[in-house]
Amino acid sequence: MRALYDSKSKTLDDRGMKTLFTQEARVQSWLEVEAALALSQAEVGMIPAAAAQNIAENCRLDRIDMAEIERLLREIGHGFVPLIKVLVKACDAESGKYVHYGVTTQNIQQTAQLLLAKRFHHILHGFLDDILHNLAMMAHEHHATLMAGRTHGKHALPITWGYKAAVWIDELLSAKERMQEAEKRIFTVMMGGAVGAFHATGEQGREVQNRVAARLRMESMRIPSRHSRIYRTELIANLCLLATSLHKIAEEVYQTSGEEFAEVSEAFTKGTVGSSTMPQKVNPKLAKGIIGNAQKLYSVLTSSLYASPRPFEADSAAYFLMDANIQESMELMAEIVMRAEELTRTLLINKDRMRANVMLTQGLINSEKIMMHLVEKLGKDPAHERVYQLAMRTAHEGLDYAQVLRDDPTVRANFSDAEIDALLDPAHYTGLCSLIALEMAARVNSH
């Protein structure tokens, strides 16, 4: 397996994703496609119905000699021909003549891989729905939990933790929508022969492809060209975009669980060891697993973009690379999404530390609010200039911001002490954060 595992992955439930990555699953998917092909060809009169039935009955792993496939693979050096030979041998003599009729290797292998990818996506959407549910609960519970909003690594304006979760929800809903919309282009059946123009089967071949697609509950590729790699690249790109949103969550957890922030932490199980030399260490294992696997996944997309434009009607280098990349992208995404589900379900929120951190600047985080109240008296630019001078004096001279404001004649002329205190309270300047958090939580729950 190519995914970047750590010990935490052994305790997570993959819900059947990893069985889709095995050699047995790969061979079974080839057999499923061969069976669907034979049965569809019989329906249009291309091959005898009895032969199709016999082929379909033998397209099962328990009818196939896997050891013989491995032996033939070493002898022949072709990744798919051994299966054809073993399947022909499993069928009766007459039916064996019609195995793999009128198609080429990649027709079966690509269709089969996309069949597995579709099943993987079904499980993936289940994880994604659970992650969204976890975040919706978080957004609702913490819609008003005060914290510092940060831009460029520095305090910007006060926000709420629920608002932060709402941003993640919005991105993940978009990722789900994007993947669902792309299914009609990605999860397709290809039965067009060596160059995709149905040379051996003609118009009947196109009908066979449509019937195979219906049997496998997939789409029929409009032009089944082996040269069209962009749709599989889209599959990987969509996984990368989903990974990026989950990566973002992990990065924030990784950063803000540090002692300097201490705003969140991963759930801790007694006995978990973070370091072989530092006894005090409790590391963000789930977050770092998401980060590492996501970064590896991005590199898979890069090589797929290089492979997509390879010339002519088929290219072995591109085919082998795309096949490996789809497999690897699913393996990596499985590791990412398992961790993301547990992380969003078990994350601990330190409300007191969030409030303490937002108060670190003693109200400087509310400078925009003070400026906006002075705009009515001074105009935008003069108000900005005045508050800037007062804020910089506070920050650089280590003074109390409230006192600096009270000592300023312009501020004093417009606001009482009580009004200045209210202007400096971050809880009174969170914009629509609470409302947005509740809206996004409700949006998830309405789906």
Summarize the model shown:
By secondary structure, this protein is mostly helical.
Oligomer: single chain
What's the total count of β strands? 6
Strand content: under 5%
Binned, the helix content reads: 55-70%
Mean pLDDT: 93
> Which sequence of strands runs across the widest sheet?
1-2
Radius of gyration: 30 Å
Structural class: mainly alpha
Low-confidence stretches: none
Shape: elongated
Q: What is the distance, rounded to the nearest whole angstrom, between the alpha carbons of the first and last residues? A: 35 Å
Largest sheet: 2 strands, antiparallel
Question: How many helices in DSSP terms?
Answer: 18
**Secondary-structure element series:** HHHHHHEEHEHEHEHHEHHHHHHH
Please describe what this structure looks like.
The protein is mostly helical and 447 residues long. 64% of the residues lie in helices and 5% in strands. The protein contains 18 helices and 6 strands. The strands form 3 sheets. A two-stranded antiparallel ribbon has the order 1-2. A two-stranded parallel sheet has the order 3-4. Helix 7 packs antiparallel against helix 9 and helix 13 packs antiparallel against helix 14. The chain is elongated, with a radius of gyration of 30 Å. The two termini are 35 Å apart.
